[in-house]
Amino acid sequence: MNSIPLGIPTARDLSVGRPDVPGLVDRFGRVATDLRVSVTDRCNLRCTYCMPAEGLEWMPGDELLSTTEVSRLIKIAVDHLGIEEIRFTGGEPLLFHGLGELIGCAADLVPRPQISLTTNALGLEHRAGALAAAGLDRVNISLDTVDRDTFASITRRDRLPAVLAGIDACRAAGIAPIKVNAVLLRGVNDDGACDLLRYCIDRDVELRFIEQMPIDSDNAWAAQNMITAEEILAILRSEFSLHPESEARGSAPAELWTVDESRHRVGVIASVTRPFCGDCNRVRLTADGSVRSCLFGAEEFDLRGQLRSSEPTESVDRAIAQRWREAVWRKQPGHGINDPGFLHPTRPMSAIGG
Ligand SMILES: Nc1nc2c(ncn2[C@@H]2O[C@H](COP(=O)(O)OP(=O)(O)OP(=O)(O)O)[C@@H](O)[C@H]2O)c(=O)[nH]1
Ligand SMILES: C[S@@+](CC[C@H](N)C(=O)[O-])C[C@H]1O[C@@H](n2cnc3c(N)ncnc32)[C@H](O)[C@@H]1O
Ligand code: SF4
Ligand code: SF4
């Protein structure tokens, strides 16, 4: 007798074809070893390319992971899944009260992961020493300009001095390397790119210019407005000589150039025009406890439900690790920004963890 399809959904096996290995492998041969943890979706700046002036509807408090829950997931990631680097991000991670404690917990793990922070640096002036003492290895600071008025117009807050003080405090605390991330916006801060590079060279900080991505909450991104990597390099070459860095890039998003044949380098993160998805080693955890295998992925895998469903036991941790593996196994090959059918991510960058 022929069977008649009834259209009844069957349980999907999310790991079809996945080899039985502990690490976070995907279908395209990549292995995720770099965990980016968003600890909050809130922020005290309102960068125009990231958030609207009025802010966003923040995640409700009871949906956010606690410090204990984040530490447990980080431990699972290192113990079971081969995670080697943990980056705390957001929203603005310095707004999360448990950040120092989380860094301390991560630093106690064996093998100890690299611990880094991506931040706007507001308040870092007073906290860099304590965070370094807790175990913070390195820091990336967002700074789009060293002109105070331009800074205020991009971030909608007059806080440039606090950011610069945060950079100085990181240097004094011995955090290294310090990197600066800058998004260039046409007609807004592109004429200040060389001044920003000079500022970073003077402080021995590595500057990277980022191509703006279509992950703003306003959906205002347009390819023709974006300043491309080629344009960024042309702007810099008007005042500096640049030579491609010989060091292998690996999974790093930034392509590097040495500046004026010195030991200083500048980077360009060309996510749109020269995507680096083929070598991606990233996986993300949102502040409300979902795994996102790609910044631009359509799928999320909730871990919070399992985390809160019962007492923490080794077998629950193993089940969480398995779900995490399934999430990464299904990771898409790339972001598809340049494809005609590209869909904006369902969450803005600040809610995913940049
Ligand atoms: N498309 C894409 N862009 C990313 C990804 N991770 C980071 N970026 C871009 O790179 C910028 C800088 O990211 P950071 O958090 O400073 O760190 P990083 O450059 O990834 O890491 P390091 O160079 O190792 O410090 C972000 O603002 C994004 O614009 C990613 O997984 N995919
Ligand atoms: C979302 S923020 C979170 C961490 C922290 N608040 C900060 O600004 O560093 C992380 C990074 O994302 C970058 N970013 C935000 N929106 C972006 C966009 N539309 N395109 C490219 N990068 C973006 C920021 O410049 C920042 O370096
Ligand atoms: S880029 Fe960072 S600092 Fe700027 S609004 Fe987004 S989350 Fe806040
Ligand atoms: S867009 Fe997705 S696949 Fe590409 S580098 Fe970023 S996280 Fe990895």
Task: Explain what this protein looks like in three dimensions.
The structure is a single chain. This protein has 354 residues and is an alpha/beta fold. The protein has a domain of 230 residues: TIM Barrel (Alpha-Beta Barrel), CATH 3.20.20.70. The protein contains ten helices and 14 strands. The strands form two sheets. The protein has a twelve-stranded mixed sheet. The chain has a two-stranded antiparallel ribbon with strand order 1-2. The longest helix has 16 residues. The N terminus is likely disordered. Bound molecules: guanosine-5'-triphosphate, S-adenosylmethionine (SAM) and iron/sulfur cluster (SF4) (2 copies). The site of guanosine-5'-triphosphate has 17 residues, from strand 4 and strand 7.
Per DSSP, what share of the residues sits in E-state strands of 2 or more residues? 15-25%
CATH third-level topology of one domain:
TIM Barrel
Q: Characterize the quaternary organization of these chains.
A: single chain
Could you give a short account of the major beta sheet? 12 strands, mixed
List key phrases describing it.
disordered N terminus, two-stranded antiparallel sheet, binds iron/sulfur cluster, 354 residues, 14 strands, alpha/beta, globular, binds S-adenosylmethionine, binds guanosine-5'-triphosphate, EC 4.1.99.22, GTP-binding, TIM Barrel, iron, twelve-stranded mixed beta sheet, single chain
Topology of helices and strands:
Layout: E1 24-25, E2 31-32, E3 34-38, H1 67-81, E4 85-89, H2 99-107, E5 114-119, H3 124-134, E6 138-142, H4 148-155, H5 160-172, E7 178-183, H6 193-202, E8 206-210, H7 229-237, E9 242-244, E10 254-259, E11 265-269, E12 282-285, E13 290-292, E14 301-302, H8 304-309, H9 314-329, H10 349-352
Parallel strand pairs: 3-4, 3-12, 4-5, 5-6, 6-7, 7-8, 8-11
Antiparallel strand pairs: 1-2, 9-10, 10-11, 12-13, 13-14
Helix pairs in contact: 1-2, 1-9, 3-5
